[in-house]
Design goal:
Chain lengths: ~220, ~325
């Protein structure tokens, strides 16, 4: 299978951290081929098990999302280390100016994905593609079947970090998810978890106290 | 004209004094207390005891007298409160007694700047791995931004904790044992976007003690944890399109981690660089070097000089709080 595909005049498109992406045609249908190449820096045992399980989970997540009528590229074939997916003709969210209404749509889309029991794992503007004003979620490389608030919160947090002030429009849309309040409070919890964050107003007072101590 | 800078480092187990003259590191002396982890008070006592000796040796090595020092830079944070206090007191004392201006330096930024000095990279992607910190950073608009970091324990802390549970002395022993291991035991592998988590690996490895050969546990633990580090670095690389990678901090001394990262950098056609071990461990030289970077421009320096009452430790000093007004 693999050998034959190489002959199919694939054009190399993009190299992600996870996989290499090629454009190709399957029976005249434009497709994307995503190949998880070997990573030489890690040992073979770990490398193979990671690639295999991620490929399988990705395929299953995309399939499940599509069955729940969520906008995702359709999946044509899943191999051991490669996937053949529908090629969407659109523009990435990070490469265009998005209106508040469009950002809200992305929020609704994530809400639907979470309600279907899937978390994306790398939900950034680089992984949302607009096809004729409709957002599609791409790259399920880190997706999981999960109803865990923590995992959901990470999805929202990644988007928050990328959107900055525009995050409020996203949030408006995300409120379509029934547990959104829980997710947002978990997200705030995660934000505090990073190392050495200021804890409210007490910090300045503390250093003043220390100063007096030393004197 | 400011030419000579004294740097004082005391964020954790190492007390370090470094001297930079005309942009060259003239002395880098240290004294370390590490006996199965860090006891804050004992460590601070050790620093207080040793600081005069270390400072004297550093001045002798650089062939300088105290009154020839033009600027004192001290590590303001992040770190352990009682230890940090020693360098703050020392800096304040010197400021008052010798009328020397004092600047506060962020410890993490110092690690990065010294690595940039040795590798001569201008705009690298930085993986900062040490006992308390595990971060991926880039510089943008005069600040180091954290793209990803550990969600629980720092990688060095994880290695040290495991070493203690297994009856080894420190993370260095884990590296040595791992060289003899060859059987891979599956470990929890946790990467979330550009963040990673290591507490799962720690718990799992601790449970294996006694059931598997210690060499194999160390080997699997290292391989898994470092693969996670490489993966988040690779992700950040794919996102930022940088052409240089630096690894810095205490754990950066690990040969296997260096090997994995340079292998990954090669695949991406990136340059990979790491500072000499002496400067990856905590040291005073890097603090003095950041002090030197501040003096390169007079206008910039004004911004950093601290008033007497501002010379206090900041135990929770974030990397992205520090403004680095140079390129």
């Amino acid at each position: 299978m693999k050998k034959r595909r190489v002959k199919m005049r694939n054009s190399f498109q993009k190299r992600g951290a996870e996989a290499k992406v090629y454009f190709s045609n399957l029976f005249g249908v434009p497709v994307v081929i995503k190949v998880r190449d070997e990573k030489k820096y890690r040992i073979k045992e770990l490398d193979e098990s990671l690639r295999k399980s991620r490929n399988r989970v990705e395929a299953r997540c995309v399939l499940h999302a599509a069955r729940n009528s969520i906008n995702v590229p359709r999946i044509y074939h899943a191999g051991k280390y490669e996937l053949v997916l529908e090629r969407l003709d659109g523009v990435l969210m990070k490469d265009r100016k998005n209106t508040p209404a469009q950002i809200k749509k992305v929020g609704i889309l994530l809400a639907k994905l979470h309600s279907a029991g899937i978390t994306h794992g790398d939900f950034t503007p680089a992984n949302v593609m607009f096809v004729k004003e409709e957002p599609y979620i791409i790259d399920f490389g880190l997706a999981q079947f999960s109803n865990d608030t923590e995992e959901r919160a990470i999805d929202v947090l990644l988007m928050k970090r990328s959107l900055g002030r525009d995050f409020r429009y996203f949030l408006e849309g995300y409120k379509a998810q029934s547990n959104w309040k829980e997710t947002i409070s978990q997200m705030e919890e995660i934000e505090k978890r990073g190392r050495y964050h200021k804890r409210g107003e007490t910090k300045d007072k503390e250093s003043d106290d220390e100063m007096q101590d030393e004197e | 004209m400011i030419r000579t800078i004294l740097g004082i480092e005391s964020t954790a187990h190492t007390l370090g004094i470094g001297i930079v003259k005309d942009g060259k590191i003239k002395a880098n002396e240290k004294s370390m207390l590490f006996e199965y982890g860090i006891h804050p008070r004992k460590t601070a006592d050790h620093h207080a005891d040793q600081i005069q000796n270390v400072m004297r040796t550093a001045l002798q090595k650089a062939k300088l007298r105290m009154d020839e020092i033009d600027l004192v830079a001290f590590s303001q944070g992040p770190g352990i409160g009682p230890c940090l206090r020693i360098s703050a007191i020392a800096a304040r004392t010197l400021a008052i007694a010798y009328k020397i201006p004092v600047v506060g330096v962020n410890h993490c930024v110092a690690h990065i700047e010294i690595s940039k000095y040795f590798t001569k990279f201008r705009d690298p992607l930085i993986l900062y791995v040490s006992g308390g910190n595990t971060q991926i950073l880039i510089k943008e608009n005069e600040r180091y931004h954290v793209l990803g970091e550990t969600l629980d324990v720092g990688i060095g802390n994880m290695l040290d904790t495991f070493a203690r549970s297994a009856g080894l002395k420190s993370a260095k022993d884990v590296e040595d044992k791992a060289k003899k291991g060859n059987k891979y035991i599956e470990m929890p592998y946790s990467v979330k976007g550009m963040d990673a988590s290591f507490s799962g690996i720690l718990t799992h490895s601790e449970k294996l003690i006694g059931k598997e050969k210690i060499e194999d546990i160390c080997y699997s633990l290292q391989e898994t944890a470092y693969a996670a580090l490489c993966e988040i670095t690779e992700r950040a690389l794919a996102l930022t399109d940088k052409s240089e990678i630096i690894v810095c901090g205490g754990v950066a001394q690990n040969k296997r981690l260096q090997g994995m990262l340079s292998e990954m950098a090669k695949e991406w056609k990136c340059k990979f660089g790491v500072a000499p071990n002496e400067f990856n461990a905590d040291n005073g030289g890097m603090i003095a070097y950041v002090g030197y970077k501040m003096t390169e421009n007079k206008e910039i320096l004004k911004h950093y000089i601290l008033k007497e009452n501002e010379i206090v430790p900041k135990p929770k000093y974030r990397t992205d709080e520090f403004i680095a007004k140079w390129d």
